[in-house]
Amino acid sequence: MIPVTRPFMPPESSYLERIGSIYRAGHWTNNGPQVQEFEQRITTLTGVRHFHYIANGTIALQLALKALPRQGEVITTPFSFVATLSSIVWEGFTPVFVDIDPDTLNIDADRIEAAVTERTVAILATHVYGNPCDVHAIKAIADRYDLKVIYDAAHCFGTLYQGRSIFQHGDISITSFHATKLFHTIEGGGIFTNDAELSAIMRSTREFGQVGQAGYMLTGINGKNSEVHAAMGLTILPWLDDILERRADIARAYDQRLAGSGLQRPAVIPGTRSNHAYYPVLFTSEQALLDAVTRLAEIDVTPRRYFAPSLNTLPWVPHAPMPVAEDVATRVLCLPSYHDLETESIERITDAILESLPHSDRHPPAAIPALCRPGLARQTMRL
Question: What pTM was computed for the model?
Answer without folding.
Answer: 0.94
